[in-house]
Design a protein that fits this description.
The complex is a heterotrimer of chains A (399), B (297) and C (390). With 399 residues, chain A is mainly α. Helix content of chain A is 70%, strand content 3%. In chain C, a hairpin with a 2-residue loop joins strand 1 and strand 2. The chains are: A mainly alpha (399), B alpha+beta (297), C mainly alpha (390). The interface between A and C is medium-sized, with 26 and 21 residues.
């Protein structure tokens, strides 16, 4: 009898027997979360590259590196989740276009390529310089990355800049598409009442921006502290504005979605309400509580325009709060949707494993990996203008 | 040779279509929408006289007609399988479940089923049914094993107003949402109406598990691929009944060919007022019920 | 155009060509043949071998039992095989209770189907499915059998009223279903169960002719059927059909005993019926047993359920102990104690040793015997050996 309830989610009411094994687990929670961080970070870097908003210049290249490092790991949770990971390339070889998921391979690889190119153009001048100044194995890599051309003439840089800008212009719809698409993967499923909403893509998209901006705020403040420099006030104010604006829209959309569901009150609405009160109660509290906390703090800061340590502290809190709130939101959507049975007569309660292939441990490892990668990336390609000028003793503007 | 040429033609069509969409790859959602409108226009022609398969192009339809898969003594163009369940006759003995697990090597635990039976019980004075299935933890505990299935007799002492058993299995929909969402083409609708899973090709993303409105899909953990009833395709192509129909002691499961007017299922549909489950989903199921109560979904 | 842009475009072009080639190379050649799937897949799926072979496939070897089933009420679910205006073949077939035949009687495992050959590197924890493994349990133990009957016949809300249902506690108490019902033809009508019809046929046998056959048996079983040794059963006054059944079992070696099998091999069908008729008409004799054990044996005889079959009144009516209710079951009253205890011990060994020399197997008897201790057996034997057999 020991094995009877093994790996089974407990439930109340009635659920289809196959539902007791939740198909999409915490790995599918972390997947849209990571892609969301990518999309958000990319949007910030594009604000500088495309729209020429100079206040983001200081963090633009860092945002780009962040996006790239997180994008590397975006498909990994999916690989861990697949029943047959060795067949992962099949949807690329024979994509079935009526499936929202078929495009993932294309979208993801397109996006990785785009980010690689963006990074290359943004850092090419530096790479050429390092290929001459560094030594040994590292030099070999820098030399490889120059593609054998050390042309950093103003004319060449002008062309680079133009291409980088075009890429960023392609990248914005790309980032929007990437994440709106993830929302579509969920929102297009008619079988899940909790997912089946037309507002799902915009909600995913905007919450992605929120979490990505939150991540940048947190990382920027930590790295500044680490490098013992004062974070640029200009950039921080810009991040604050973007965070506030996207947070307002996302809250409105999420509120509307809930309102519509409750107002339409289709069959099984009692079960939906029970879901909110029951299995995802904690998640909903974290999501909405932290969102409102950030909204209040950000609004106050929008009005009062604080400066100095106080500003940095509160903004850091808001950034972190939104990262957590969006993670909770991903859980509420992905797991919550599956905890609500297709019978609309029952509720499951999902208990994640702590250790194992599909477990919280894997999630933690997958979430730490991009940060570690980012650390090495910033060592390899320092994105800070000040560090570069300090290290090289000269000021270079790549614009 | 002719076959090869045709393959090339269809492949080339595929490439050009994908090439075009590949450009749009940036907006994946857009791509999916474009593909589906394209399908609506040219591919989903199965409502026409030609009876083309689900998501099948004209050349592929011709190929299916002229060069059907090499299954001995079987032509998939000559059959249109369908299935009926007579709720009033089901005694909830669950022989179908055990037969199915043996026949199809389904994982032997309470979380993976190609078919199962639900029990609906209205206690006296209650408007809503209490539902449990053969895989309910209490039923499993009662048997003490996940290898055998049996309903416990929990309502023995209760005042029961109305109670009945409802067998469930794959509906082999005409508009299968599982096929729609499969990213690889590992699941598909055969010309004879059965939705099949290619276990050599499925990569176990479980999107189909999410998409099925009837909850009939699961992940076979041993194979790492999706699992679903296929009306025992290996049996019906040999002229046998599906295993569950074979073992049903009361005849509450009826199976047959709609192309044959005298087949059990043709008679079942003709002589009874049949319903389908969750018609609002738009999946157009091919599993017909007689005597299904309002609560059955 | 600057050199680095040219180089970059070259790198991109090379990667693109490699990717497209790989995609073309890895695509299955049958893909897109009939639609967006591998064209080879339907035939692969259809190639799987069926595991349920249908009741008709059992007929070839298990003729007699198949005959019982085909004539009985388990053959069909309704009187006229018509359900909701649909003519269907229904009723529990062989595999409903005995589970899928697979490639029985072969001892080899069934070849794995395409889908069963698929394994994955990721999901290591899973339950294996036993149906491909040889040595499937085609026969069931009595305990399982009782549960099996209850799968369909337990009185339960939800079951249609036409379905025969019982509350097992009041219907049979601790009794096994098979005590009274032949699972292959469960309606209790001794006139219609084919095995019993065959036994009745024995009534036309010629006891006088049997007498001359019995001369060969006299050395061990005595001239009238009262045996010379305690290890050898008395045959006088035994149920005729039981004797005939036993001889046929020896002849076919489903019950194996060197001497008896050799003896039975030489008997024709009519010889068997005749000699059985001869012994059954002779007068039995009580051999007697250990008097100190009789009381305990009597109590066990009732509590273990022996009386259900081996007493003329059955479990619930008074009757003579040791005198069986049915022609199919042997009388035990007056039988040799030594023989009785060795028979019970043989039954205890169960199906595994059924076909060995001296082995005995009967699902009911084995089920009962397994619950008896050595003392129980000796007590029972002593009690029965001392019981009046007339």
């Amino acid at each position: 009898m020991e094995s009877v309830f093994e790996h089974v989610s407990s439930y109340v009411g009635y659920v289809y027997p196959n539902e007791t094994e939740v198909p999409w687990t915490e790995l599918i929670v972390i997947y849209p979360y990571i892609t969301g961080l990518v999309a958000g970070a990319f949007v910030v870097s594009s604000l500088h590259h495309v729209f020429g908003i100079d206040r983001f210049k200081t963090i633009s290249r860092f945002a780009l590196l962040t996006a790239l490092c997180f994008m590397f790991f975006a498909p990994v949770p999916l690989l861990f989740h697949l029943g047959q990971p060795t067949r992962a390339f099949e949807p690329i070889i024979t994509p079935h276009w009526t499936s929202a998921m078929a495009a993932f391979g294309y979208v993801a690889s397109f996006y990785v390529c785009l980010l690689l190119l963006e990074v290359w153009f943004a850092f090419r001048e530096d790479i050429v310089r390092y290929s001459k100044s560094s030594k040994g194995f590292k030099q070999k890599i820098y030399q490889l990355l120059t593609l054998g051309s050390d042309d950093v003439s103003p004319k060449a840089l002008e062309i680079d800049h133009k291409i980088a800008r075009i890429l960023a212009m392609v990248g914005i719809p790309g980032a929007m598409g990437l994440h709106g698409y993830v929302g579509f993967v969920f929102g297009s499923l008619k079988t899940r009442e909790w997912w089946s909403s037309d507002l799902m893509p915009p909600i995913f998209l905007l919450s992605a921006v929120v979490s990505g901006v939150g991540l940048l705020i947190v990382l920027y403040i930590i790295t500044s502290k680490h490098r013992k420099v004062t974070p640029s006030h200009e950039a921080m104010v810009g991040l604050k504005q973007v965070l506030w604006a996207s947070l307002v829209i996302v809250l409105v959309f999420e509120g509307l979605e809930l309102l519509e569901m409750v107002y339409k009150a289709r069959e099984g609405i009692e079960t939906v309400m029970a879901l909110i009160r029951g299995p995802i109660w904690a998640g909903m509290t974290i999501q909405w509580g932290l969102s409102f906390f950030s909204l209040v703090v950000l609004s106050a800061m929008m009005i009062k325009n604080p400066t100095g340590k106080k500003f940095v502290g509160w903004l850091f809190a808001c950034g972190l709060a939104m990262m957590i709130a969006v993670l909770a939101m991903r859980w509420n959507v992905v797991i919550g949707g599956q905890e609500l049975s297709k019978t609309m007569k029952g509720l499951l309660t999902y208990h994640p494993l702590i250790v194992g292939r599909e477990s919280l441990m894997t999630v933690l490892m997958l979430f730490i990996a991009p940060f570690v990668t980012l650390y090495f990336a910033t060592q390899f390609l320092p994105p800070w203008d000040d560090s570069k000028s300090r290290a090289e003793g000269k000021h270079t503007s790549h614009h | 040779m002719i076959e090869q040429e045709k393959n090339e033609v269809t492949e080339n069509c595929g490439i050009s279509r994908r090439g075009f969409l590949g450009l749009l790859g940036a907006g994946a959602a857009t791509a999916a929408v474009v593909a589906s409108t394209e399908s609506d226009a040219s591919m989903l022609g199965h409502k026409s006289d030609k009876k083309m398969g689900f998501q099948q192009s004209e050349s592929q339809y011709e190929e299916a007609l002229n060069n059907p898969p090499k299954i001995p003594n079987y032509d998939w163009n000559k059959h249109r399988w369908s299935y009926g369940v007579d709720v009033d006759r089901c005694i909830g003995c669950l022989r179908c479940m055990e037969a199915c697990k043996a026949e199809n090597s389904v994982q032997e635990d309470a979380n993976h089923h190609r078919t199962w039976v639900e029990r609906y019980v209205y206690l006296e004075g209650q408007d809503e049914a209490i539902v449990d299935s053969s895989a309910d933890p209490k039923n499993i505990e009662n048997v003490g094993s996940e290898l055998h299935f049996r309903f416990d007799n929990r309502y023995e002492q209760e005042k029961v107003e109305k109670a009945f058993f409802v067998p469930k299995l794959c509906n082999q929909c005409d508009e299968p949402s599982c096929v729609q969402v499969c990213p690889t083409g590992a699941t598909f609708k055969a010309m004879d109406g059965v939705v099949l899973i290619d276990t050599k090709y499925c990569f176990g993303c479980q999107y189909c598990v999410q998409a099925c409105p009837y909850g009939v899909r699961s992940l076979n953990e041993q194979r790492g691929t999706a699992e679903k009833c296929n009306w025992c395709y290996h049996r019906i192509t040999k002229g046998l009944n599906p295993a569950c129909v074979e073992v049903c002691p009361t005849g509450s499961r009826v199976f047959g060919d709609l192309n044959d007017d005298n087949s059990p299922i043709s008679q079942f549909i003709r002589n009874n007022k049949v319903t389908v489950l969750k018609s609002e989903m738009g999946n157009k199921p091919n599993l017909y019920y007689v005597g299904a109560d309002k609560e059955v979904s | 155009m600057p050199k680095h842009i040219v180089r970059l475009l070259t790198v991109i072009a090379v990667i693109a060509v490699v990717a497209l080639t790989a995609r073309w190379f890895f695509r299955d050649s049958s893909f897109y043949r009939y639609g967006h799937y591998r064209g080879d897949a339907p035939a692969e799926i259809a190639s799987k071998l069926p595991k349920h072979q249908g009741s008709a496939s059992c007929q070839t070897c298990h003729k007699a039992i198949y005959g019982e089933w085909a004539a009985g009420i388990h053959r069909k679910a309704t009187k006229d095989n018509v359900i909701q205006g649909v003519v269907v073949k229904a009723g529990p077939g062989c595999e409903v209770c005995h589970t899928a035949a697979g490639n029985h009687p072969s001892k080899e495992p069934m070849p794995l189907s395409v889908e069963d050959q698929i394994t994955t590197i990721t999901h290591l924890k899973h339950h294996t499915h036993a149906s491909n493994i040889p040595g499937r349990k085609l026969m069931l133990t009595p305990d399982e059998m009782r549960g099996l009957c209850m799968n369909c016949h337990e009185k339960m809300p939800g079951r249609p009223s036409k379905q025969p249902q019982v509350v097992i506690e009041t219907h049979a108490g601790e009794e096994l279903c098979t005590t009274c019902h032949n699972p292959h033809s469960p309606k209790i009508d001794y006139n219609k169960v084919p095995r019993l019809v065959a036994m009745k046929k024995a009534g036309t046998a010629n006891p006088a002719a049997g007498g001359s056959v019995a001369k060969n048996c006299a050395t061990c079983h005595g001239a009238s059927g009262v045996s010379a040794s305690g290890a050898i059963p008395n045959l006088a006054g035994q149920k005729q059909a039981y004797l005939a059944n036993a001889l046929r079992a020896y002849k076919s070696k489903t019950r194996d005993n060197g001497i008896m099998s050799a003896m039975a091999a030489g008997l024709s069908e009519s010889d068997i019926d005749n000699v059985a008729a001869f012994y059954s008409r002779n007068s039995c004799k009580v051999t007697g047993g250990d008097k100190s054990k009789i009381a305990a044996g009597k109590a066990k005889f009732e509590s273990a359920g022996c009386a259900a079959c081996h007493a003329s009144g059955g479990l619930r009516k008074p009757g003579m102990a040791g005198i069986s209710a049915s022609q199919a079951w042997p009388n035990l009253a007056g039988q040799n104690a030594e023989y009785l205890s060795s028979a019970l011990k043989a039954y205890q060994q169960g199906a595994a040793k059924a076909t060995q020399e001296g082995g005995r197997y009967n699902p009911v008897m084995t089920g009962v015997a397994k619950h008896l201790s050595e003392t129980d057996i000796e007590n029972l034997a002593a009690f029965l050996a001392s019981t009046n057999c007339k």
